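Sat 14:20. Reprocessing the chain from the morning session after the first attempt stalled halfway. Input below, unchanged.
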Amino acid sequence: MLAVIGLGGSFASVKDIDAFDYHLYRNQSIPLVKQGHYGPVLTDAERVVEQLLTVNHLTGDDINLLIVDEDNSSIFQPLLSNTEFSTNFFAVNTVFSITEALKKAQEVSFVATNNDKLSYSRTVKSNISTLNNKASIILSINQQYLDGVAALLVCDKALLEQPLSQFHLCHCYAEINALSALNYTKTSCNDEVSEHIQDFLSTNDINPAEVESILTGESVAEGCTSEQNKVYRHQHQGSWLNAFQCLSEQQIQASSGQKKDQAKTTLLTAVECIRTDSVNFTALVSLLAAILCLDQRYRLGCKQSLIQKKNKKQGAKQADNETPSITDWQHSPFYYLAHSNSYLSDKANEGANTRPRRVIVSHVGHVKDSMKDANKADIKNIDNNTYINGLLELISVSAAGIKKGDSFNVNNGFLAQQALKPVIFRASKMQLLLKLLKQTLLHVMDMISASQTLSFVEFVKQKNDLTYSINAQVDAQVDAQDNNQINARLAMDEDTQAQFCVVLLASSFITLVEQIQLAIAGVSVAQQNNKPWKTPVGSYFSGQAVSTFKTPKPLSFIYPGVGALYVNMGKDLLRLFPQCWQSLSMLSDDLAHSLQDALLTPRLIDEVDFNMSLALEKSLRAELANIAEAGVSYACLLTNIFQQQLGLKATSAAGYSMGEVSMFAALDCWQTPQLMSQRFRNSEVFTEQLSGPLKRLQSIQMNSPDKIKFTEQSSCTVINKTSNTTNNKIDKSSVSSTPEQPLWESYHIKAGLLQVESIIEEFPSVYITIINTPESLVIAGVPEQCLALAKRLNLRAIALNVHNIIHCELAKSEYENMLQLYSLPIKQKLSCQLFSSSCYLPIPITQKAIAVSISKCLTELVDFPRLINKIAASGETVFIEMGAGKSLSTWIERILKNSTQPITCLSVNQNKLDDHSAILKTIAALLSLGYPIHLQPFFSGSLIRPVKKLSALVSVS
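Finished this time. Tokens:
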């Protein structure tokens, strides 16, 4: 078994492995610059190799250099002729495939027993039993464009277990445990490839259900169209489908079972950020991608779905013998993702299986000897259903285990790789601030015209002093005496006076010029009107002078209810802030369930259209227990980001509806929050009584004079209505439940409380559950009655697709059960005040008080304006919506529109806006308001782990 202890990649436009990881995850194409000679790419290769050695504190004597060439080319000859480079290594070998390189790396390292051997199917295993203590660097370059270097540093896993070796201190990014290769020459080779895949899985004892992802890759002839490339990929993926089908049928026959649909457990994807016909280079890039997916804990998305476009019109009918049908994919365990996202371990699917996550690289290199000299015209005329000669390489990679004593942690530079950066300007007076903006504008324009080599990120890092978050640098070419006076004044202002602060968000010098020009035109007006200035991209000026040293600064976190969640919410958060993995793992032992991974990241076989999007959103809200747990988990994640990673501290907090549960969990009130997760899953209150089958309505049928008849189709019809009771308001008209017409629904209407109360007695099946603003509220009940009430008021009723009985009299039957559910030991006292809609006051942090607070909140009407006004009266002026969407921040602005104090309402997550941009827009506003924030991760970081150097051993007599 080989351990990967180093990885590197470099291109003309993407200089390091962190930048490559960013493009890979974002599926952002890396532009390849075709070089006229191989000098630059070989220089890059030397640099990448040197970095691998330096990081791990290894020397060339420890390394066998394996150069992966393409058909005995002469490209590497200058590198090998450089004695200063080549003679530094223990050995230098040339190989002609990635699988051959990995086998050679195993041989040159160490194999102790047969169980430790790297399995190499259809190849004679070497009988090596000596310890060489050597690692190998596998190096390949893009020989088509001469732009691109990929490299891996690998060694036998046994070397990492030797305590007196430098290898023992190296970080293991992943483990390579099986590989195989197949040369094929047939014109139609799907059957042969499928058989080889089956043999590979069986020989290496790999259960298809344990394969989390398959990364398929193809190297095709230069001149092939994108459509032909898609055909090759579909054929390649079809071979995997056929192999899994055959293995599944064998298992069914062995167990005498019946064929049934399989759960979507295996992601079928591809590396799309690089396109080249350099066979070995693309194979190594695919292997590099698999290692990054495992180490950085993400699943790789791709643009091409599993369904061939021409196949869509034919339904379940197969287009031809080579192309799988839609039905085949539907019944298979395969799915695709349109966007990359974090991998969350699924305890339910893992069961007793403790094997690490496994990814298989399946690479096909087309166009070998017979096609090398073919005309491009001939290549373009290749039939879509025909494979050219090629090489299939299969490599199994597994996640590395955590060393004993090490904490669970993930490091990366993903946040630092984001293009959008905050540029901060501060001054004590508006005229100084404007002068600083104008001088910076001139300086940047001069840099653009002079084609300065300084990168935009380096420029911003120089402009932003990350220690004090001030900008006191101005153009050195404009009136040096004036500049020195400004700099001295700014330094003095930082210590003694409140300051004006404008934060501009830009991704390049060009966009920075645009934002500065907008700021020069807008900040003076904003200051005169004492109102904020902001741009669509997120640049912000509060319009007021603020002190940066007043601590703690008032800040209120407001947690939304469960209905705010949406499909694909927060998919990048753990990539941007990987330090949160540790705290999340303490919150739950089943992150996939806690964050509702299957619902928020649906496993599909084709692209999502409008109707499917609606169906997915509806499915997400089908069960209250699921969305409630996900809402609480994401609230904890976002709170950890802002409090632990960014350094902000809330002085007060509140929750909207079930957001109160999120508040107590996210602010670390409970000793064992994971117990809440387990209780919620097993509670009949939110899985049967007040949600799902809504048994609470059945109990009314049995105990109320109002007769409700439930049919087998879960429909209900009111047969008779007698007197109207407080606890059992029932519809007096006929209603029926269908998939389109649920038994219970909540609606948002634009109406005031008195307006609805004046007629609600005429609609006994309708309840007022939440007051959002003085002009809008939520009603819930039997859908036909709710719609009739809205029609009576000549208003539009917007269904929220939340079929839960809460915030009304009917929910009070479950009050005692809720008390038990939410009664958990308290972890600590908090310095911030926690407001509750149960009493509209801060509540004491005790076990009983919290349980009572949540239970009363969920069984009584919520008056959100009253709650917000109480918080504002305590001195809070800045509110952050700590969850999905921006509904609460919009409502708070309306509620406090007549406040005598400037009110700022921010949201940290918005649908249709990526996570980084949403958070950065919030940070820009907070910086302008004087809140100190940790900005270092936005500018620096790397996925490469630092390695300690082994201390020299000294013999002591």
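Residues 226-255 form the longest helix (30 residues).
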